[in-house]
Amino acid sequence: MRVGAAALALWALVGCQRAAPSQPRRAPAPPTTAPAPPATTPAPAPWSEAWLLAEGARYLDDPGYRRSALEASLTEHRNNYAQLRLSHYGLGASGWDNLPAWSPRVAPVTVAFSAPDAAPLAPLWDRRRPSTLAEWIALGHKVFTLYPMRAERFIEWGLGRRDALSAHGVVPDAQGAYPGLVAFRDLEDRPRVGITCALCHSAPHAGGWVMGRARRRFDYGALRLAYHRDTGTPVEPSLAARMATWGPGRADVTEDEAEDPVAIPDLFGLRHQRYLNQAGTLRHLGPVTLALRQETQLLDSNHQAVRPPRELAWALAMYLYSLTFSPVSAPATPASQRGEAVFSAACRSCHESPILGGDAIAVARVGTDPALAMGSARGTGRYRVAALRGVREAGPWLHDGSLARLEDLFSEARFAPDFARRVGRPGPVVGHRFGLDLSARDKADLLAYLATR
Ligand code: HEC
Ligand code: HEC
């Protein structure tokens, strides 16, 4: 990382970190795996390897720290996301702490796949705690690509119907592996196929495969509906109707009654996100927030029957921070340079972080579809100012992926009641009125600038 970017990163985190549990501490609890530093050693700089290792040891070994970090990270304690975690996580003798730590035997799923146990399964993890950042990241890569979030019947069905998989964005990479699919043995020792993070958060791009990039061609709803149609397995009619409207690149991950599909986000530059999730559900106080997010996500998606060993959740967080955007951005032009000035005047008050994101702001102020922000699932009454790194290629845009064309963000046409280019169903794409009153030339320059980000 360049020095300038590192300094900014520090500022961004320290800025929202006052009194936060992950604040660099003068006297950290001695980690069990490394000798305590002499009292005179200055606290390691945030995001340095020493700091990350110390934070990791604290997350792994200090239950009180995990619980207090959870409470501090949850922006709004009344939504379902928060309630579930507050009532089960970090309670010691009761709750999720008692679940078995599950580290399965796994194998990648390849084009040669014939049956879940035909591939030689191997332990995902050798149960040794990594001691360097590089080792944590390498382990995190394995978790991201191979830790089962859960077994998925519709994927198992799809492996007998490869055309259905590829029609909905589940395709092999150049080496013949299906990123995001995993063969494993479940708790009852049955051979199964499941999904991993890489199913939604990795994608083909420019002839290669990019980890962290949203799988914008993956149509989760349509694939599940194809499975139900083909097998005759019953599906609740209102859920079926909702799945039909998600379209590629979106999924309703909130498991509430509201119709609120969310765009699958890119995971680049996460370190600079002050909030995690579009509705700002988690204050990103430091790596412990991300590790808690991932530990509880893996636990919840595996039906709360097992928990991942915490080492794997920490490894996953370290891996996610290591993902950087591979620049595909356009080179600067005179138009994009003029656009940068327009951006500074009209946009930077909100889009101000190193990745051109920012704080979570009241939904009334941004005015976009309020269903997610006000919903009982993850709602906080706010939306996070979206990061604009790689934005030109990050469509469909807005938290719900309702905007199919970036140009339309700056056009009054999208407010029409029958606006046809809205993703999912025709209708207005409301809110985010910023920049609408700019001249046509300023708008064109602004778009040229955004293409360089
Ligand atoms: C079925 C698709 C899907 C899978 C599988 C999936 N995610 Fe996501 N992920 C999403 C969606 C959709 C969101 C947006 C949720 C929101 O904003 O509320 C998201 C959000 C995130 C975020 C927050 C990003 C940000 O900018 O705030 C992180 C981090 C993340 N996912 C990591 C993971 C990891 C790690 C895994 C594997 C354990 C995983 N996801 C599995 C769809 C998926
Ligand atoms: C008052 C704060 C604010 C201002 C000013 C503002 N934005 Fe935003 N912007 C937001 C918020 C909040 C979101 C996320 C809204 C949502 O997803 O519902 C957003 C989302 C976006 C997105 C969608 C990104 C994506 O990946 O989905 C783009 C593009 C964008 N803004 C560009 C701009 C530009 C260009 C300007 C200046 C003309 C601007 N914004 C001014 C707050 C602001």
Task: Give the helix/strand layout.
Layout: H1 3-15, H2 49-61, H3 63-73, H4 80-88, E1 105-110, E2 122-123, H5 133-146, E3 150-151, H6 153-158, H7 162-167, E4 177-185, E5 191-195, H8 198-201, E6 202-205, E7 208-211, H9 220-231, H10 237-246, E8 250-251, E9 262-263, E10 275-276, E11 282-283, H11 287-301, H12 310-322, H13 334-346, E12 360-362, H14 363-366, H15 371-374, E13 382-384, H16 440-450
Antiparallel strand pairs: 1-2, 1-4, 3-5, 4-5, 6-7, 8-9, 10-11, 12-13
Helix pairs in contact: 2-12, 5-12, 9-10, 11-12, 13-16
One heme C binds at residues 149, 195, 197, 199-201, 220, 251, 253, 262, 264-265, 267, 273, 276-279, 294, 297-298, 316, 320, 378.
Question: Describe it for me?
Answer:
With 453 residues, the chain is of the alpha+beta class. The protein is 35% helix and 10% strand. It has helices at 3-15, 49-61, 63-73, 80-88, 133-146, 153-158, 162-167, 198-201, 220-231, 237-246, 287-301, 310-322, 334-346, 363-366, 371-374, 440-450; strands at residues 105-110, 122-123, 150-151, 177-185, 191-195, 202-205, 208-211, 250-251, 262-263, 275-276, 282-283, 360-362, 382-384. The strands form 5 sheets. Strands 2-1-4-5-3 form a 5-stranded antiparallel β-sheet. The longest helix is centred in the middle third of the chain and has 15 residues, at 287-301. The protein is globular. The model is unreliable at 1-32 (pLDDT under 50). One heme C (HEC) binds next to helix 14.
